[in-house]
Amino acid sequence: MTTSALLVMDVQKAITAHVSDRTYLPRLARAVGSAREAGIPVIHVVIGFRTGHPEAHARNKIFAAVPPTAFTEADPHAAIDQSVAPRPGEIVVTKKRVSAFTGSDLEVVLRSAGIEHLVLTGIATSGVVLSTLRQAADLDYQLTVLSDGCFDPDPEVHQVLVGKVFPRQAEVTTVDDWIAAAG
C-alpha cells in the first residue's frame, strides 16, 4: 500500500486575502479535515524568508518584488490561514522558492515518513502547484491534484493546467471525489 500525504501549499493570510472564490477555503478545509479523519498526514508548505530576503536574488522576478519584511517570522500575514491551520504535530515546511521542494527539507520529511503519494492543493495553481507537481514527478512520486483544492487568480490558466497539463503526470480529481474515495 502506498503511503499518502496531503500537501496544503501557500495557504497563508497574505495570499488567501486575494482569493476571490469564497467557497475555496471551506472546501479546502473539508479536504484537510477528511485527511485527518482518514489518518492521512497533512503537511503544510509555506513561503518564508529571513528579514531583508537574503535568499531572493534581484533577478528573481517573483521574490525580488516582495517587500523585505513580507513572509518573515515577524510578518503576521505570513501565518497559515486559520481555516486550515496546522494541528499540534503536523509538519510545516518552509520553502524559499515557488516549488515546495526548493530550499526546504520537504523531500527529507517525505522519504523519512515513507510517503510515496502526494495529494496536492494550494495557491496558486500556476505557481506552487505546477512547480511542485513537476518536481515531484521527476522525483517519482505518485501524484493526485485536487482541482478545486487549488486556486489561481486566472481561471483560464487554472482550467488549462488541471484539464490538460496536470493529467499528464497526475490523477486529477475534486475534493468531494477524493473524500469519497478516501473514506
From TrEMBL:
Residues 4-177 form the Isochorismatase-like domain. It comes from Fodinicola feengrottensis. GO terms for molecular function: hydrolase activity. InterPro entries: Isochorismatase-like_dom (IPR000868), Isochorismatase-like_hydrls (IPR050272), Isochorismatase-like_sf (IPR036380). This is Cysteine hydrolase. Keywords: Hydrolase. Transmembrane segments: none annotated.
